[in-house]
Amino acid sequence: MTNFNHQSFHFYLKINDMKNYIRLTMIALFAIIVSAFSFIKPLEKTTKVRVTTVPSINIKTLDGNTINSKDIIRNGEPTLLVFWATCCAPCKKELTAISKVYDSWQKKTGVNIVAVSVDLPQYANGVKPFVENNNWKYDVYLDVDRNLMHAMNANSTPHSFLLNKKGDIVWEKQGFFDGDEVTIYNEITKASTK
Fold it and tell me: Is 120 in a helix, a strand, or coil?
């Protein structure tokens, strides 16, 4: 009987040692993870402007005609240029939200909205029906080779650039979250006075 109690006691110590080892390991892992994340800078939705104007790049209309990117910007009015793709849920959300308020925004600020699809060539034929089905009333163009997108240092979609009345890029934003249209409108309002 003494032998059994002695073995049980050693087994009990081993289990407690194992539990303590697991606790210490978990605490150490937690400390490592917390310290690692403390060095990561949070991603900001709004980024600094890297280009000052829209470069001269040939893109396509939805009917397949070539147009220079300089010709899609109307001087004298602020312009919101949005790079998007039909496979991008935040893009569709942003452009649909803007579509709902576009007439009002245009009356109040004169803003010109330009959506540039960066869908790959094999998907480009689906852009026009998508736009028509969603009843988007603003201008939509195709940049299937993504030359304009890359020239403007836009690396993801949606990526929006706001130009003032002179055609200077005064603000840009990556991504879209519910409610961002309020921020976009406030920036358009500022750009309409410059």
Answer: coil
- The pLDDT of residue 14 is 66
Query: Could you report the per-residue pLDDT of 101-120, keeping only the tens digit for each?
Result: 999 999 999 999 999 999 99
Q: Which residues contact 99 (CB under 8 A, 6 or more apart)?
A: 134, 135, 136, 137, 138
Strand spans (E) along the chain:
46-47, 58-61, 66-68, 79-84, 112-117, 139-142, 159-163, 169-174
Range of lowest pLDDT (10-14, 127-131, 162-166, 175-179): 10-14
Helix, strand and coil in the chain, % to nearest 5: 50, 20, 30
Per the CB < 8 A criterion, the answer to whether 125 and 138 are in contact is: no
What are the residues whose beta carbons fall under 8 Å from the beta carbon of 128, sequence distance 6 or more?
62, 63, 140
Q: Are strands 46-47 and 169-174 parallel, antiparallel or unpaired?
A: antiparallel
Number of H helices, E strands in the chain: 5, 8
- Structure tokens, 79: 């312009």
Residue that is written with structure tokens 């603003």 in the block: 138
Q: Which residues pair with 59 in a beta bridge?
A: 67
Mean pLDDT of the chain: 85
